[in-house]
Write a sequence for this structure.
């Protein structure tokens, strides 16, 4: 199986460094993406949009030729990367076996990842830890926080605040797995039952599973081996 790993805000492909090898040891091909504008802190990013990131993932999908019998392609999107994965599923629903949302849910038409983050000059730097909720930071100790901040790259404001555009309802036929970390699976099911606005697109997907991986918002740093195991289990079901 080809597994495309899409990072969230402030992260590049190296953020999957402890996850991708486990997937490859299990016999899969892992593609950890560094999206446009995220190549370095000095990269030009002020004009990059959410659509540009979706198109970059679509380009990788189109470049792959899965071997017969391997089951196709799985997208894995962490945090804001889940919105990008869903946009790519809308563009290429017939190429995908499953989309895995790591502490995220699908982003519906017209919605944004987060337009409240502090931004300047067209980019969104990693905020001070005080701006995050305590649930975000579970297990992210001082050493991990320092390492995260050292590697963090400002995200394009046009990605964080850009509106999702969807057009193909076949995206709802692509099976989905939500790996619940800072929120529990039980809480997500309650939000779905209560028609919480941010869960409405997830509720429209015809095949959804929810699995728990209790930790903070960045399991690729706090519980990387367990995250890889949860992804592998989802891939096996694909």
């Amino acid at each position: 199986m080809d597994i495309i790993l899409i990072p969230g805000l402030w992260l590049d492909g190296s953020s999957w460094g402890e996850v991708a090898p486990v997937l490859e040891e299990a016999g899969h091909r892992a593609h950890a993406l560094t999206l446009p504008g995220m190549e370095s802190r000095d990269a030009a990013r002020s004009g990059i949009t959410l659509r540009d990131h979706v198109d970059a993932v679509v380009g990788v999908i189109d470049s792959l030729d899965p071997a017969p019998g391997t089951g196709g392609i799985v997208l894995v999107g962490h945090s804001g990367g889940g919105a990008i994965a869903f946009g790519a599923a809308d563009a290429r629903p017939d190429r995908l076996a499953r989309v895995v949302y790591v502490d995220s849910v699908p982003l519906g038409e017209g919605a944004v990842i987060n337009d409240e983050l502090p931004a300047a000059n067209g980019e969104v730097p990693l905020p001070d830890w005080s701006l995050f909720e305590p649930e975000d930071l579970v297990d992210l100790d001082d050493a991990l926080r320092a390492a995260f901040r050292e590697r963090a790259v400002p995200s394009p404001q046009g990605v964080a605040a850009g509106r999702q555009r969807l057009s193909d309802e076949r995206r709802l036929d692509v099976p989905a797995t939500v790996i619940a970390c800072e929120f529990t699976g039980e809480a997500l099911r309650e939000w779905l039952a209560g028609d919480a606005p941010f869960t409405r697109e997830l509720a429209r997907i015809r095949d959804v599973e929810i699995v728990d991986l209790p930790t903070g918002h960045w399991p690729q740093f706090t519980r990387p081996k367990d995250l890889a195991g949860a992804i592998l289990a989802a891939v096996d079901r694909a």
